[in-house]
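User: Round two. Same drill as before: sequence, then structure, for each protein.

Assistant: Same drill it is. First protein:
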Amino acid sequence: MTDIMKQLSLKGKNALITGGNRGIGRSIGLAMAQAGANIAIMDLNSDDAGKTIDDIKALGVKSVFYAGDVTMAENCNQVVSELIKDFGKIDILVNNAGICKNVKAEEMTWKDWYDVINVNLNGVFLMSQAAGREMIRNKSGSIINISSMSANIVNYPQPQCSYNASKAGVSHLTRSLAYEWVKYNIRVNAIAPGYIGTDLTRAQLSTEWGKIWQDATPMKRVGKPEELGGIAVYLASDASSFTTGSIMTVDGGYTTI
């Protein structure tokens, strides 16, 4: 009989999470730490890093913080190299760093457009490439990209064409890398959240936008960051050994109607 709890264990594995100081990244880090993984966090700055690292260490695993910019290839490669020195190898990468700008398409500047695409899509590729090279050497690894339901729908009422386009790119990049790297025993999947109560959305929840979002969600609420932890552990673990190129939607039913 298969021991499902053993399959879900991440004991002895090392995970790198971008944008892991707060929100979804922090919750995924804590969930993976509870499952036994050592956690490395990469972020632009150290805000909130100390508390997150302390909370992860309290779960009995190792945890470190690396300052780095996912849009700069040299930073991505350097952070992965530092992780290898500190932990020995990389088993899991969670591409969580992301931004959103709510600007009308006709008013959007080139910088507005490029900034979102650069972080949300280019950053996912650069980090996947840096970690993927090490995983190819090890013939093993799991990459989890944080996409969005916005990859498949147009959000209402806010204008966010750059975000939607970037997340559509993340979902298809996920499938493409899954195909290219399956021969190296590297699995690449994505989580596509709906509206989650993070810093990107929390300020809007009490506004007309927030009311529309919640009314349009069958569960009539936004999700909690910790509600993504379980699926992230599943995708990182041996329990999902036959899962690659999949986009797992977690949206309270938003895209079912």
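Second protein:
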Amino acid sequence: MLIIPTGHFAEISRPRKLRVRERWIVGSSIGLLVVIAVAVVIALTSVQRTSRNGCIDVSAATVIGGSELYRCGGQARALCSQPQTAPAANVSFQRALAEACRKAGLPVSAPPSP
């Protein structure tokens, strides 16, 4: 026969208090889950523009940073139809612009002959 000390049942039947370390672990885990949930929501709700239906979207990397060029309608047609006379440093941008114009269904001007 097992003899249980007095008050043992009352001690084990009430909820156990969390220690400081356990509270830190639970709080950190909840915080991490919130950050992940926010990142997932932002990733799923953000929309990146694409080149189609008469609109062009070109990202260009330059020496001092990068930029994004987005034009639609007449502005896109004018940009795609003007001759590409930029310096040789912008060859990658010119290629990206020509590809974006083709994806948008806009006519691309031919590069000037040397």
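The longest strand covers residues 55-62.

User: Perfect.
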